[in-house]
Specification:
Blueprint lengths: L1 H6 L10 E6 L2 H15 L2 H6 L4 E6 L3 E4 L4 E6 L11 E5 L10 H13 L12 E5 L8 H6 L7 E3 L13 H5 L13 E5 L4 H11 L14 H5 L18 H11 L1 H7 L18 E3 L10 E7 L4 H5 L4 E11 L4 E12 L3 H12 L8 E5 L2 H12 L4 E4 L5 H13 L3 E4 L2 H11 L6 H19 L26
Helix pairs in contact: 9-10, 14-16, 15-16
């Protein structure tokens, strides 16, 4: 499908259409452009759609038809000044070898936002198509999914069929969509036309449809069924070319994170990486939450220029400690989550506001003693607000592995609420997830290390000679 989209864009049927082919390097877009040219000049094609290429403009990088249409090949970060198209065909904008670099990845995103997105001939009728494998949560596809003014229809075709991942043409093409849809996909198409008739006409040419904010149905369910992936759960995409043993070898070579993105188009391991989703215990919503003995807030603060430049979030997670009769040990319960990109006055007001809420007032604030946390520590201490300064001696990933056993052993609970499940999902994407996943993970690992170090929660992996802190008085959450 990707090959067909890259090389078989209509030329004979629409010889006046102008196409910009864009890839992470110009050589790749030239390759696809040359393939398209060979198709167009083939005798069979000419019999179906006679079209002439101008002899004076017939290079591989840029060739034109006698009707004024053309195909021009570009690199995504190259010079695009003065160039516009009816179709922007973006193929693999990221280099897989550099996509994990924040700088390199952001350069591609900046190129799209500041240059490519506006290089269309018509803001109402032009088309942008993005074809890529998922390499990171914040790759170009991930970035586009955060847009709130422009909706995209995305086609995800994983190597091994997963219903939750795979594109559903009935849902996306034959049903009216009235709200922003966000799903992980691999082929993305944007249509800016709000006219259903124009959009439908575009669909005939390109075999793919995009969305507006309120989007009508573009085809009947019977028509959409013809585009539905016929596979069952676990079926391979192209077993003749990639049989099961070959796919297993690819997984071994890629590693679990790269395989999840490049094969399944999910830039995180299914079920989670270090902190897996299925390890969390879910409290039955029909059962009242347990009475907790201690409530604390675990903070991760971010408001410096460096934090803002890296899209970091300030965040906290609120926890309650309770005695689990069934397990005969103390366990943790998630009570509340918050994260946002805010300045310091807003962050300070947030912390002090919790102290004025008798129903949510914690027994203790736990704050990492780093540059952005030091000011909050000082302000809360001046207000006689109980807190503990936390000084981590390990990196983020090591801390996540440190608390992994606590989570896996069933000592951490969440209420059966959507916001809580979203919290566990974000943590499951660490360390390759969106920025807020890193910050929320910090609040969780900090909270776990806090109770572990203060001898509340133990598990079978703890060392027998682990030193119990000599000074700590357990406080009641409601005392």
């Amino acid at each position: 499908m990707a090959e067909a989209t890259r090389t078989r864009q209509p030329c004979g049927r629409s010889p006046d259409r102008r196409i910009l082919g864009i890839s992470n390097i110009q050589d790749l877009s030239i390759r696809d452009s040359a393939r398209t040219k060979r198709i167009v000049t083939d005798d069979w094609y000419q019999k179906q759609w006679p079209v002439k290429l101008r002899a004076d403009q017939a290079a591989k990088t840029n060739y034109e038809t006698d009707k004024g249409g053309f195909r021009l090949s570009l690199g995504i970060t190259g010079n695009i000044t003065g160039k516009r198209g009816d179709i922007l065909l973006i193929d693999d904008p990221h280099d897989a070898t550099t996509a994990q670099s924040d700088v390199q990845r952001q350069a591609v995103i900046d190129a799209y936002d500041t240059k490519l997105s506006s290089r269309v001939n018509s803001q109402t009728d032009s088309v942008i198509i993005l074809i890529m494998q998922r390499l990171h949560h914040l790759d170009l596809t991930g970035h586009l999914l955060t847009k709130t003014k422009t909706n995209w229809t995305h086609v995800c075709i994983p190597m091994e069929y997963e219903k939750e991942l795979t594109y559903d043409p009935i849902k996306h093409l034959s049903e009216v969509i009235n709200e922003h849809q966000r799903h992980g996909k691999s082929i993305s198409t944007k249509y800016t036309s709000s006219d259903p008739e124009k959009a439908k006409a575009q669909q005939v040419d390109t075999q793919s449809i995009g969305t507006t904010k309120i989007r009508p149905a573009f085809m009947t369910k019977e028509e959409a069924l013809k585009l539905k992936d016929p596979r069952k759960e676990g079926d391979l995409l192209f077993p003749q070319l990639f049989p099961a043993d070959a796919v297993e070898r690819m997984k071994e070579d890629y590693g679990e994170y790269a395989a999840a993105g490049q094969l399944q188009q999910r830039p995180s391991v299914k079920g989670g990486g270090i902190l897996k989703q299925h390890w969390w215990r879910v409290w039955d919503k029909e059962t009242p939450l347990p009475e907790v003995e201690h409530v604390w807030l675990s903070w991760d603060t971010a408001y410096s220029e460096k934090d803002l430049a890296s899209n970091s979030y300030s965040a906290y997670s609120m926890w309650g400690l309770f005695w689990n009769k069934d397990q005969s040990r103390h366990c943790m319960m998630l009570l509340e989550v918050w994260y946002d990109q805010v300045d310091y006055p807003t962050l300070r007001a947030k912390a002090k506001g919790l102290e004025g809420d008798k129903d949510r007032k914690p027994d203790c604030h736990l704050i990492e003693k780093k540059a952005s946390g030091q000011s909050l520590i000082q302000d809360l201490r001046q207000g006689n607000i109980p807190l503990r300064a936390y000084c981590p001696d390990k990196d983020k990933i090591t801390r996540a592995y440190t608390v992994q056993a606590m989570l896996e052993s069933g000592q951490v609970y969440i209420p059966d609420r959507k916001w809580a499940h979203n919290f566990t999902y974000l943590l499951s994407t660490f360390p390759t997830g969106v920025p807020e996943s890193n910050d929320l993970t910090d609040t969780f690992t900090q909270a776990c290390i806090y109770v572990k170090n203060h001898w509340y929660v133990q598990n079978s992996h703890d060392d027998d000679d682990y030193e119990k802190p000599k000074k700590y008085k357990r406080q009641s959450a409601y005392g």
